[in-house]
Specification:
Blueprint (H helix, E strand, L loop, with lengths): L1 E6 L2 E3 L5 E9 L3 E10 L6 E6 L5 E3 L7 E6 L4 E6 L8 E10 L5 E5 L3 E5 L2
Parallel strand pairs: 2-11
Antiparallel strand pairs: 1-3, 3-8, 4-5, 4-9, 5-6, 7-8, 9-10, 9-11
Amino acid sequence: QVHVVESGGGLVQPGGSLRLSCAASGRFAGINDMGWYRQAPGKQRELVAMISRGGSTNYADSAKGRFTISRDNAKNTIYLEMNSLKPEDTAVYYCSADVRVYSGGYVPYRGQGTQVTVSS
C-alpha cells in the first residue's frame, strides 16, 4: 500500500506565498519522478512542476520565476514554494509520484489534493 499526502494549502492574498508539501509512504522500492499538478474549476488538470530523483526540474510557463520545486529523497517528500501568487493560481493542487514497486516497474500514485485559494 502506497500513500501520497499533500499539505500546506490555504487562503492567501494576491502577492502572498505558500509552501506545499507532499510525502509518499508505504512499501515500495523507490520513487522516480515526483511532481505537482493543479486543476481549477471548469479547467483541465495541468502540470505545474516536476522533479526527478536526481533533482532535474521542469516547470509550466505559468510557474517559472515564481514557484520552486524541491525534493528530499530521504523523506520521500517534495515541496512547492509558491511566491507572488495570483488569483489565477487558485486550484486544487495534486501531488504525483512514480513509485517503483517490488514486483518491477513503476506505478503512478496521486494524492487527494490540497486547495489553494488566492483572493483578497
